[in-house]
Amino acid sequence: MCKKWKVRRDEKRVIFIICLLGVFLSATFCGGNDNETGYKGLVTITKVDNSKEIILHEGERFRIELEELGSAGYNWYFDNLDEEQLELISKSTRAISDGKVGAPVMGVWLMKAKNKGSTEIKMDYYRIWEGKDKAKEHFSVKLLIE
Fold first, then answer.
1. Beta pairing partners, 53
2. pLDDT at 3 (0 to 100)
3. 0.85 exceeded by the pTM?
4. In the list 119, 132, 135, 139, which could disulfide-bond 82, CB 3.0-4.6 Å?
């Protein structure tokens, strides 16, 4: 009976260590996110960067964060995104208020600088049914990709 107890106790230790390792790895690779997007160390381009020039490296990922009021129909749209130089990886939103219905959200575009050179990102803020001609705001940044 002592051998059975010892085997069970050793098995419990192994299971405990595996679970502890799983928690550690989850915290290392999934936790501690930056601005709730999960991408640490990315260049983040925001409204304060409007009309600025930003230097990136070939293959570097970056994100654009702009406030949207989707509940009123206002969203940001790219104006002729240069797909030779840039790749749109994903578009998401995250809450920026305490769960208030109809409150603004942060639009987050995850992108990749594909090739060396320069390009410009232009975006317009409008209601899709009103069209770009009635845009309330414009946003642009020049990117130098080294």
1. 142
2. 55
3. no
4. 119
